[in-house]
Amino acid sequence: MFLQTKALANFFTVISFFMVIQSARSDPVLKGVPFITIWNAPTSACWEKYGVSLDLSTFDIVVNQNYTFQGKEVVIFYSSHLGLYPYYNESNEPVNGGLPQNISLGDHLDKAFMDILDTITEPTFNGLAVIDWENWRPLWVRNWDKKRVYKQSSQELVRQMYPDMPTEKVLEIAKSEFENAGRKMMKSTLELGHQLRPNGLWGFYGFPDCYNYNYKDTSHNYTGECPVQEKLRNDNLTWMWEASKALYPDIYLEQALKMSENVGPYVKHRILEGIRVAKNRPILPYARIVYTYSMEFLTQEDLIQTIGQSAALGSAGIILWGNADYSVSKGFLLSVNSYIDETVGHYIVNVTSSVILCSKAVCTGNGRWCVRTHHLIHTFICILRALRSRGIHKAKDLLFLDKPAIGTSCTLGIL
């Protein structure tokens, strides 16, 4: 058995949220279920190069045909694959003008138009459409460390036009021009995607971010909460949330978090921030089956705190991202295959089936998922009493504690 009831109890977190039932939607990628797992790693070489069969369908994991980044289920656009994304490379050399205020928005959209049609050839595409632009951030203040080049170059651009302008005024204009151009570029790109492939779930990877990375600071008690300042800054990105069809925050774990009591609050508040700004939009966090900057697989306990907690908080699903390192050798591919077959696959089945049962029992099966709001009400928690080795559960295996308020509201907790 993957996880014994006792082990589950050790890592169970009570999560209670008021949910509003929504009418059923027909997005096939989400399969009409409350929680879906999507594989987004280029593992096509498994069979082609090494003869290793990575069968994810056994665990109801949705995957693109041929295990590619681009397909009918999910498409991810990196910076060089969509329009004329401006940025500075590692040598601080400008590409496509370097700054969003340096490009022609029309030229960018013309190229993005063709890129979308070439990449998503099916007009009725209704999968995930994720734009991964990470070189600069749309809010001026968040371009720190290596990203300071965008501030410096923006100010230099203003100085070239107005050499006698006071420094404070230069800063003011540079900030305004950068943020306005960045907003127009990102928003219009989302809108173009909606126009060309209206059924796709368009959104930017890594947004919103909680910036709750201070778990390494041992001088205080880590709560995982997003700094108030960062939540206020996220409120300044309302234009992005309104233009997105889905939100894709990340809940990647560094090795410093392995088996740490900080994992739970770290993940929890990153998802909660997504829920806070999303309104009625689905949340699909990006996660990994390995710790970042390593090829070490997550422990069972950390799987609970990532995949399990995502489901418990009301995410529409989770995206398991990976890079070409997964297929760097036959040996590691076999390790990935074993980890999926023996550990993560069974846990995903357990979580998915449990959420489905809770949705049917609590929400009477209405809607493809329950959409969260922020009102904590009468606790109604579905607790999995027995995890069967096959990952199949019956309604009698659920213990109901307290009843929800009369009406359409319900709460759900599953880990």
From TrEMBL:
Query: In the UniProt entry, which residues are flagged as the active site?
Result: E134 (proton donor)
Q: Which Pfam families match?
A: Glyco_hydro_56
Q: Where are the disulfide bridges? A: C210-C226, C358-C370
* Chief location category: other
Q: Name one GO molecular function term.
A: hyalurononglucosaminidase activity
Please state where this protein is localized: Lysosome; Secreted
The glycosylation sites annotated in the UniProt record are: N350
One GO biological-process annotation of the entry reads: carbohydrate metabolic process
- Where does the signal sequence lie? 1-26
Q: Which InterPro entries does the annotation name?
A: Aldolase_TIM, GH, Hyaluronidase
What's its top-level EC category?
hydrolase
EC number annotated for this UniProt entry: 3.2.1.35
Record's keyword annotation contains Transit peptide: no
* One GO term describing the cellular component: cytoplasmic vesicle
Q: Which UniProt keywords apply?
A: Disulfide bond, EGF-like domain, Glycoprotein, Glycosidase, Hydrolase, Lysosome, Secreted, Signal
* Reactions that this protein is recorded to catalyse: Random hydrolysis of (1->4)-linkages between N-acetyl-beta-D-glucosamine and D-glucuronate residues in hyaluronate
Q: What family does this chain come from, according to its entry?
A: Belongs to the glycosyl hydrolase 56 family.
PANTHER family noted in UniProt: HYALURONIDASE, HYALURONIDASE-1
Instruction: Provide the protein name.
Output: Hyaluronidase
